Amino acid sequence: MDDWTDEQTMMREMVRRLAREKLLPLAARIDEEEVFPEVAFRALAGAKLFALAVPERYGGAEADVTTLCLVMEELAKVSPACGLMVFSTQAVYRALRECASPEQADRFFPDMGQGDKLASFVLTEPDFGSDAASLRTRAERRGDGYLLNGAKVFITSASAARYFLVFARTGPGEREQGISAFLILRDTPGLVVGKAEDKMGLRGSMTNQVILEDARVSAANRIGQEGEGWKILTEVANVMRLWGAASMALGIAEAALECAVAYARERKQFGRPIAGFQALRFMLADMAILVEASRSLIYSTAGMIDQGRGSKPEIESRVSMAKCFASDAAMKVTTDAVQILGGYGYTRDYPVERMMRDAKALQILDGTNQIQRIVIARNLIQD
Ligand SMILES: Cc1cc2nc3c(=O)[nH]c(=O)nc-3n(C[C@H](O)[C@H](O)[C@H](O)COP(=O)(O)OP(=O)(O)OC[C@H]3O[C@@H](n4cnc5c(N)ncnc54)[C@H](O)[C@@H]3O)c2cc1C
């Protein structure tokens, strides 16, 4: 399994050190305050983690999928909220790396390659979440550009992002056929960042509404052809939930297991460490099984993608399986970690309650686990 290249190992070690030294002391406060974590952002920018997916010739790391998984896992062990900042930005940059024209790459990547800019992936609308193909935000052609109108919700990092990858309906096609993608800059008149969500978990990651009111974007900033937005979305999203939600879930579950084992060895009841009670030993064993199974599914799939192995439906199913399995596993492992810590686990003196709240989000974002099961079943049954 762990046959990483030297570059992947170095990246993992660097991120692990950075997370422990710079993010760990901030993680609880970031969660409590729920404001943009400026200090954490600067630490991540200093390590150029916001340029991971940018091509090397523009100053980025041109990270492969395995490397992205390793980075997200390490960040999520300490602060999934900070991980989400990196994830949202790299999701946009990876979409551009695969779908932008050479002219667009020359225009956008030099700035993105500096590694200190955030980007938002702007898809979800108030009335259309899972059913994203029905989205209503409109982009109407006006001369050499478009006027965008609509409302988006749940947009990660919108309050601080410089770039917004917006999915909007250009028509005339129905549903998937009529959707196009646009890269919009923050200072575009008509792009307004609205209300911030007051979330259960991932509270250090800002989540806002984005309103578009006659926001004008040049046709030169349309990514791909008109009507290709859905293709961009599915091709990029199908892989991004592996290094996004799945890898973050793995990191959270590992951290919760580590915390539960350490506590069970220390805490004494009935004159002996609670780790000696078989009821808890079996719980810990089951947690470890879930963590290792998640890891295997994630990294074997990442390896397949990086090496170009497997058919498209096979990869799509495996990514959905990894997302579902790892996030359900993280929910179970963190809930059991709270149980093992007893009353203390239910307090903010220990991080496991935060891990449990953070894990819940991963069963929802990046395509809910119900939607992932629909994808897996569709590929299985082929109907
Ligand atoms: C912390 C966080 C960050 C996010 N960041 C972003 C972001 O950066 N950009 C962005 O665009 N979006 C983002 N989202 C939105 C996220 O992608 C959506 O919440 C998600 O896709 C689900 O959409 P919804 O909330 O509208 O739920 P709905 O689609 O309304 O679903 C409600 C319930 O119905 C189920 N359901 C729906 N359809 C079916 C079906 N056909 N069969 C079975 N069950 C079904 C769902 O699984 C869910 O349980 C974020 C969300 C969160 C919580």
Question: What this model shows, in words?
Answer:
The protein contains twelve helices and ten strands. Helix 7 runs parallel beside helix 9 (312-340). The model has no long low-confidence stretch (mean pLDDT 97). Helix content is 53%, strand content 15%. The chain has helices spanning 6-23, 27-33, 38-46, 65-78, 80-99, 102-112, 229-266, 278-306, 312-340, 342-345, 352-362, 369-381, and strands at 119-122, 138-142, 145-156, 163-169, 179-185, 191-196, 207-218, 222-223, 268-269, 272-273. The chain has three domains: 6-112, Acyl-CoA dehydrogenase/oxidase, N-terminal domain (Butyryl-Coa Dehydrogenase, subunit A, domain 1); 119-227, Butyryl-CoA Dehydrogenase, subunit A, domain 2 (Beta Barrel), CATH 2.40.110.10; 233-381, Butyryl-CoA Dehydrogenase, subunit A, domain 3, CATH 1.20.140.10. The chain binds flavin-adenine dinucleotide (FAD). Flavin-adenine dinucleotide (FAD) binds next to strand 1, strand 3 and helix 12. Flavin-adenine dinucleotide binds at residues 88, 120-124, 129-130, 154-156, 199, 202, 207, 361, 364-365, 367-368, 370-371, 374.
List the helices and strands and how they pair.
Layout: H1 6-23, H2 27-33, H3 38-46, H4 65-78, H5 80-99, H6 102-112, E1 119-122, E2 138-142, E3 145-156, E4 163-169, E5 179-185, E6 191-196, E7 207-218, E8 222-223, H7 229-266, E9 268-269, E10 272-273, H8 278-306, H9 312-340, H10 342-345, H11 352-362, H12 369-381
Helix pairs in contact: 1-4, 4-5, 4-7, 5-7, 7-8, 7-9, 7-11, 8-9, 9-11, 9-12
The chain binds flavin-adenine dinucleotide.
